[in-house]
Amino acid sequence: MTSGGGQRVLVTGAAGQIGTELVLALREKYPAEDVVAMYRSTPLAPEVADGGPSAVGDVTDAEGFARIVEEHDIGTVYHLAAILSATGESNPVVCFDVNMGGLLNVLELARERDLRVFSPSSIAVFGPDVPSEAPQDSVLHPTTMYGMTKVAGELLADYYAQAQGVDVRGLRYPGLISWRTPPGGGTTDYAVAIFHSAVQGQPYTCFVRADTRLPMMYMDDAIRATLDIMDAPAERLTCPASYNLAAVSFRADELAAEIASRVPGFEVHYVPDQRQAIADSWPDAVVDTVARDDWGWEHEFGLEEIVADMLENLSREQQLETA
Asked: Catalytic residue at 146?
């Protein structure tokens, strides 16, 4: 399973949107007892808590994190614990401390114990000077603290890979859409919250303009990409810590129209708030040709497939809750 370190996998931020689904996917791929879900305060989803081992810890506590890695014989860390974009703007100092301090602790322990690391990046690395379709080798001038920590995180990962020999890999996730967990404080989370309103029969107040176009991806594709890059031969990877990753791009009103075509009478009102400025600083789309060429990345879910699957799963969950 791993190269160096122990024989088990640790997922930090396992109570979050990506972490919840990644833990479940890893437990399908490996023995469930070999995948440890680490969280700080937000409770794990029941299926994660009941399906395998877990640990309470904080990645900013270097000694405590090291104890968890040692006690659980960890060989690979999927480091997802982070403060997201909109939340980070409300408390930038905490965002910096968690995102940079936590990553440094993970990478330093990886150097000491020969761990493999997955450290995700984000479209938040881009700034307003990037082309509307951002290439792999874009100039990175983000306007948010979250984006700055992701740029610095990519550089830190590159340093530990080149100077310290750590096998660290990462993807620039676009906005992610998932039915399993509620929105988590990101600027693209309108594309999750809108579905919850639709299945509840309520209008949705959208915090970005109708014409806001952003890169998006269904969680199933994001999880598959995460597993694929960690399985890819190292010699194939030309930018291992910072791959652009793309699936679909759509406007907020295009998403609303697709939902309304399946949920008659659904209404959306657009009331942009401070998150609009963040969205405006990001590209409309990203070019992920390098990922497709290097390790064969291909997405499966387009807009229609995303909407159909989200509505089906959220409607089922709502029926179970009210039964």
From this structure: yes
Which residues in the chain show pLDDT less than 70?
A: 1-5, 322-323
Instruction: State which CATH number among 2.60.40, 3.30.310, 3.40.390, 3.90.25 fits the domain covering 175-217+248-285+301-322.
Output: 3.90.25
DSSP 143-191: SSHHHHHHHHHHHHHHHHHHHH--EEE-EEE-EEE-SSS---S-GGGHH
Q: Which two tokens stand for residue 319?
A: 């029926």
- CA dist., res. 265 & res. 255, Å (int): 15
Q: Are 215 and 279 in contact (CB under 8 A)?
A: no
pLDDT tens, residue by residue, 14-62: 999 899 999 999 999 999 999 999 999 999 999 999 999 999 999 999 9
**Which residue among the candidates 30, 39, 78, 146 is catalytic per the annotation?**
146
What CATH fold (topology level) applies to the domain 8-174+218-244? Rossmann fold (3.40.50)
